[in-house]
Amino acid sequence: MHSKVVILGSGPAGCTAAVYAARAMLEPTLIAGIQPGGQLTITTEVENYPGFAEAIQGPWLMEQMQAQAQHLGTKFVQDTIASVDLARRPFTLVADSGEHYTADTLIVATGASANWLGLPSESRFQGFGVSACATCDGFFFRGKNVAVVGGGNTAAEEALFLTNFAERVTLIHRRDFLRADKTNQMRLAANAKVDILYDSEVIEVLGGDNPRGVTGIRLRNTITDSRHTLDVDGLFIAIGHSPATALFKGQIEMDEAGYIRTAPDSTHTSVAGVFAAGDVKDKVFRQAVTAAGMGCMAALEAERFLAGGH
Question: Can you say whether residue 300 is alpha, beta or left, with left for phi > 0 and alpha for psi between -120 and 50 degrees?
């Protein structure tokens, strides 16, 4: 199955790339991947996507994006790619189904996923008080008590951001020192709303089912093994993200964390004709709207690449 443009990933970056590529009459093929719709499909209310005065549901937004791309002529494929060969053009992609796809250009929009603690109780309350994005969900915790798990810059920045809404923010770290840089540590120390619990880890998320929501967390002291409960209304996990780039190891240039490197102000990767958009290349903003913007860039750059006779 050959296409001028193949898009990997069906989140905001992939769907927006598909819209622009389809409008350019490039007849793109979008391969949805392991989580069709991306991270927004596990988000409940979205209040910060432009164009909607009222809160909208993440899964609904992704359904609309996909329907728009299909309406314009994108071919959607429910499949997962198992291997790629970017050494020769056209590029070859082999799917789990056994199907072979070839492409003149490739847009990688496979995204990234938050690292979670791995607790059954944590997954039960995802979207109901447990979050991995303070920018997305902090607004819902005005005047409430929340906890943040992590010790790096992301955790420190999430905790400080949450002080704009929450009454109290408790930063929980399993070690006796933070990995965050000195500036962030000074900001935490100077903020009267922030408490830091060292040598502690969350072992259970507590909450009710009717209505479902977080009411507290059970903590274990990593030194003494003692247990205690902390009353909170929300829990934010800030222990990093993992980009979905294993497919491209050794074929595309990446940074030390596995994010795809792109040229400045561009989605061009180290391989001519391969473009990267969204969270797979962005570890700074990680927002649906920035991913969508990069998807637009990738499609426009793919169109120019093809027009140049490559």
Answer: alpha
* pLDDT (0 to 100) of residue 33: 86
DSSP 141: G
Which is catalytic among the residues 137, 233, 279, 282?
137
pLDDT tier for residue 217 given thresholds of 50, 70 and 90: very high
Question: Of 104, 136, 279, 282, which residue is the catalytic one?
Answer: 136
Rounded Cα distance between 15 and 10, Å, is 6
Dihedral angle computed from the Cα positions of residues 32, 111, 132 and 58, in that order, rounded to the nearest 10 degrees:
-40
Specify the pTM.
0.82
Sheet holding 234-237, edge to edge: 130-131, 234-237, 145-149, 168-172, 194-197
What is the share, in percent, of the chain residues with pLDDT greater than 70? 98
Could you say which of 133, 195, 199, 296 is catalytic? 133
Cα gap 194→163, rounded to integer Å: 8
Q: Is 133 a catalytic residue?
A: yes
Strand ranges inside 232-298, DSSP E: 234-237, 241-243, 274-276
Q: 62, exposed or middle or buried, with CB in 10 Å at 0-12, 13-18, 19+?
A: buried
